[in-house]
Design a protein that fits this description.
It is globular and about 40 Å long. The chain has 227 residues and is α/β, with parallel strands linked by helices. It has helices spanning 16-32, 35-43, 78-90, 127-137, 155-165, 169-172, 182-188; strands spanning 48-53, 68-74, 95-98, 112-118, 138-149, 192-200, 212-219. The protein has a seven-stranded mixed β-sheet, sandwiched between helices. Pfam families: Methyltransf_11. It is an enzyme of class 2 (transferase). Its EC number is 2.1.1.-.
Length: 227
Amino acid sequence: MQLRSRKLPRDAVHHPVFARFYARFSEAADVKGGVAAYREELLSGLSGRVIEVGAGNGLNFAHYPGAVSEVVALEPERSLRQLAVRAALRAEVPVDVVPGAAEALPVKSEAFDGAVASLVLCTVRDLPRALAEIKRVLRPGGELRFFEHGLAPGRALATAQRAADRTLWPLLFGGCHTARDPLAAIEAAGFELGTYRRLRIPESGPQMPSSPCVLGVARKPFTENGG
């Protein structure tokens, strides 16, 4: 693997309190909330070299199929990155956990067959730049697998999401923005949307601003005009 310097600080993100909460919450959601099954669906069929942006505590690593030859997993938050390193040691495919931010991926262009964005696009500081970087490092025809939460299709919850984003929600939850529209952003970045489906997490009970999710695939066009 060849990394390249993009002149970002080693720890571009630092949310140690949220990191501890997120690690516990995400592990519980995988077991009790069925999120592990969504991770399995997200990664099914991937092969070759894969870059995972915002790997968190590494819960995806156990679900990569054997056809994946290498995963380069970037995580900017130090506490989560340390947990991801431990998860990488237990993975059945080679996983290299490195510091780095989505807006400046420290890797060469067109170096990967697939990219994974899993519950991370809500937190990046510059979403268009982050998606442009993901597109840059994918080979033509390469897949972006995404599992993200975002803007609700219903007006009432969407209004609540926008209100949450203007108040304390981003400060309390590691920079998370619940009213972003990941599908629209992925299309605006020049990806071709493939199949996707909308989810609600948790599936029952009261909805949170972060409940509406979407899981799917997009592709980098073989040419800039998509031909």
